[in-house]
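Service request form, structural biology core

Requester: graduate student, group of Dr. S.
Request type: structure prediction, single chain
Budget code: on file
Notes: please return the result as structure tokens.

Sequence provided:
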Amino acid sequence: MRRERNQYIFASELNRRNRGHRIRNAVLILLPLLIALLWAVNATIARGVLLREEKLTILDLPPDLENFSILHISDLHGARFSEGQKGIKNALGDTRYSCVVMTGDMLGEDGDVEPLLELISIMPHDTPKYLIPGDTDGSFIETKAHSSLSVYTDWAEKIQAAGVTILDQPVLITREKGRLWLVPEELYVLDLKGMQSTIDQQAEELNRRAASLTADDAARMRSLEYETQRIESLKEIKKKFTTEDIQVVLTHTPLSEEYVSDMIAWSAKDDAFSMRYASLILAGHYNGGQWRIPLVGAIYVPELGWFPKDELIQGLSYLSGIPQYISPGMGSDPHYEHQPGRVFNNPVITKITLTRKAER
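Core staff response, request fulfilled:
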């Protein structure tokens, strides 16, 4: 009787061990297949450019600006989506837009401008295109000797030749009586008087040793002359703003609620050139968090920490009543040191259409 019981127990243990081996073997077989499947799905997502459309209500929008549309692109980081940016071209299709705005970090590694030039080439030649640099792009003003006598860097010269306006001062777009300004955010806080004083001091120092100026010194002098002309131009442009104008603020790094509320509090009501009269803020920078978990969101953003709220890194939110749209971006930012590439994070271009009509 005892022997039969022992045999039964031994058989049960053997069966459990066999089941354990089968489960382990199944896991060892299925896990690589699951990883391969996830890799394939993510590769498709990472290369699949999406065109998102946002309709934004601005109640005081001039009637002549009804349905004015902005194609907002950010953070290309030199990425290519098939040869000649065909992936982007297919995503855009026959979409029409009033202008294109690029909010920085568009160049590739070591300032590679070619993918950006390919992107520009697939857009209608007669559609206005504007760009502000991001932190990885660097300055578009050359302060050292380079291949030409231009004050612009080589990459800046190339994209300007391709029809892009690099914004270092506000630009006015008109439609009949409708007036819309594109304004780099930094200009609202720029101390023109203090800036001119600094420029004068640097120019005076260079002039004192004019007989021994190097090629780099000459390039620096050209940049100072450029900045002096820009300051004079800004003084005149600021006088042209009215409180009825639409101001679209361009910034690479998204603005915070505290910053915007302070800017509004510090500005005078009769100063038309101020954040107080901003109608829309366009930003980029975060690439949607780069690595995302479906239905959860971004995993980690260096400046914001673990699992930040989506409203801080992408999409539409409101700051003191001013809408801010943060582009999810297109490429991958090297600042995410341990998160290379994009994971479950589609590259996105956004078409934002302005309307006076309130959404129902």
